[in-house]
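User: My collaborator sent over this chain with a note saying "see what the structure looks like." That's all I know about it. Can you take a look?
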Amino acid sequence: MTLDTHPILQAIEADPLFGLGITLVTYRSAVSVQRRCGGLVLLNPVLVSVAVIVLILKFGGISYADYMRGGQYISLLLGPATVALALPLYDNLASIRRSARAILPSVVLGSVISSIGAMFIGRLLGASHEVVLSLGVHSATTPIAMGIAGQVGGLPSLAAAFTLLTGLAGVLLYGPVLRLIGVKDWRARGLGVGTVAHGLGTARMLQLSEAAGAYGGVAIGIGGLLTSIVVPLAIRYGIGVW
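Assistant: Without extra context I'll predict from the sequence alone. Here is the result:
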């Protein structure tokens, strides 16, 4: 009898506490590792956690469905966590109001280019229609991206994966890119990172500057709304899709 067919192990894997437990333990361990390594960006806790959990499922012979019996409870917290970004936004409301004329066109342009550009590149490289539609929502935060993908004919699970990869790329690359183009203002940094790297990028901005986190939160809200409009319109008129 192999380990993955042992009745006791099967019972543990089927318990919702299994998926929830390994997620929390893995993430907390990843946070500790990053701190001990001086906050090394490449050891981002989300990136490390995803890699470790994938390895556990792969070599443990554990199905994704068994894992998600508990992992789904983490997913349910994505919405409240996104809404919680309203707190730093409220604290910086006066500054955001003064910058409204610069914020709106910046986020509009960034969101439109991000959605249309991703779909166009995906189609150019020969991706299927479902994959192209799932790519279009990659810069919206995960709950919004999954909802839009399901409504327009994409794959919510694939959209979540693209969204995660986009956020991780933003966390890893924002520093070199912003230094290269000379962006030093934390408000501009937060707005840019929030537009392209949604919740993961904004969470990182919050660790560095409350103002950056607040502007990132604004970008998430406006960007999510725009994505829900841009992607269906792109499908209707065939922009970047066919």
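A starting point for your reply to your collaborator: Residues 3-76 form one domain.
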